[in-house]
Write a structure and sequence with these properties.
By secondary structure, this protein is an alpha+beta fold. The chain has two domains: 160 residues, FAD/NAD(P)-binding domain (3-Layer(bba) Sandwich); 138 residues, 2-Layer Sandwich (D-Amino Acid Oxidase, Chain A, domain 2). It has eight helices and 19 strands. Strands 3, 6, 7, 8, 13, 14, 15, 16 and 17 form a nine-stranded mixed sheet that branches. A hairpin with a 4-residue loop joins β4 and β5. α1 runs parallel beside α7 and α3 packs across α7. The protein is elongated.
Length: 349
């Protein structure tokens, strides 16, 4: 008999299962994607500020502290380099944005993040920085695929992770307890990402999936060593290439690259970089965002043995470890979930 079955092994399911396993629980992970995770398409970036006004993200200090400590500890345990510190160049794309930034940004709240101005320079041979910009610190990147692949390989070898589709009809709740594909389990946690929209126990929750597409490009010439943001991001990769992203599309959720997204990304990239380039890859992922842009944790009212761990959107790399810790102690010890992430907030509304 399993203590927990975790359905879905994207970043959310992987971290939650890892925390439960390390607490001594008997855990089974079932995942149908066999490596095709939106978590791996994302840049894996934590950025402490967001938006044109550069305000701190919701609970970013708490999330970042927990996430960085968790990934660093797991990297040491796995013998892997998982984290990179990132300095970022944020370039203005017109004079209006520059003036808006000067007037509206609360500099007092960004102490320790602001690292200096970038002067306008129309003669720059690499970057389009005719309107200048600012340099920020405090960001970091998780090598998400490296982290997930290492745990998945270990779990597959140990019989913890099973790659297969699980039909909802294989989940039976009744007087005899919970049965998952013919095996008994105390509890089941759905970590399905955007596919939760088809879940018969949790489809009522206000999930708002959106499609994100990124490009992998190779620059002809010496590109920037730092991440650069100007409408899109340009992120250096370990192999010398760059990742460019990302789009946001709430209407088209098809899991294949679109010509429109490629054109949109390249058009904005040409307003950021002056070097010639070639596109090497084009990837797609679906972000499982909630209507209030906050995570969704909790249990089903119909079947209290069934739980959901979802709704991280584009902030999963930073939010998941803290939320997984809250979820783990809730599952293991019955500690109430924080109300700001508990799905009961939608029922109260």
């Amino acid at each position: 008999m399993w203590d927990f079955v975790v359905v879905g092994a994207g970043l959310a399911g992987t971290v939650l299962a890892d925390k439960l396993l390390r607490a001594g629980a008997q855990v089974k992970v079932i995942d149908r994607d066999a490596g095709a995770y939106g978590s791996k398409v994302a840049g894996g970036i934590f950025n402490p500020v967001t938006g044109r006004r550069m305000v701190k993200s919701w609970m970013s200090d708490i999330f970042s502290k927990e996430a960085y400590a968790y990934y660093r500890q797991r990297g040491e345990g796995l013998g892997l380099h998982l984290l990179d510190h990132l300095d970022m160049q944020r370039l203005f794309h017109n004079e209006g944005q520059r003036q808006e930034w000067l007037v509206r940004v609360d500099f007092d709240k960004l102490q320790g993040i602001m690292a200096g101005d970038i002067a306008p320079d129309v003669e720059d041979k690499v970057l389009c920085r005719e309107f200048g910009g600012v340099r920020t610190s405090g960001s970091w990147r998780l090598h998400t695929a490296r982290f997930m692949d290492a745990l998945h390989l270990e779990w597959t070898a140990n019989g913890i992770l099973e790659h297969r589709a699980l039909s909802y009809n294989e989940i039976q709740c009744g007087p005899q307890g919970l049965s998952v594909a013919g095996e008994k389990s105390r509890k089941l946690v759905f970590c399905e990402g955007w596919q939760m929209v088809d879940n018969p126990w949790f489809a009522h929750l206000p999930l708002r999936p959106n499609k994100g597409e990124t490009l992998g490009v190779r620059l002809h010439g010496k590109g920037p060593d730092e991440m650069v943001l100007k409408q899109v991001y340009l992120l250096p990769q370990p192999n010398g290439s760059y990742r460019v992203g990302a789009t946001y599309d709430r209407d088209n959720l098809e899991l294949h690259p679109s010509a429109e997204a490629r054109s949109w990304l390249l058009e904005r990239l040409q307003q950021l970089i002056k070097l010639p380039l070639e596109v090497e890859t084009h990837k797609v992922g679906i972000r499982p965002a909630s209507i209030d842009r906050r995570p969704m944790l909790g249990s089903s009212k119909m079947e209290p043995q069934l739980f959901v761990f979802n709704g991280f959107g584009s902030k999963g790399v930073s939010q998941v470890p803290w939320c997984a810790e809250q979820m783990a102690v809730h599952l293991l010890k019955g500690v109430p979930l924080p109300p700001e992430v508990d799905i009961s907030r939608f029922e109260r509304a």
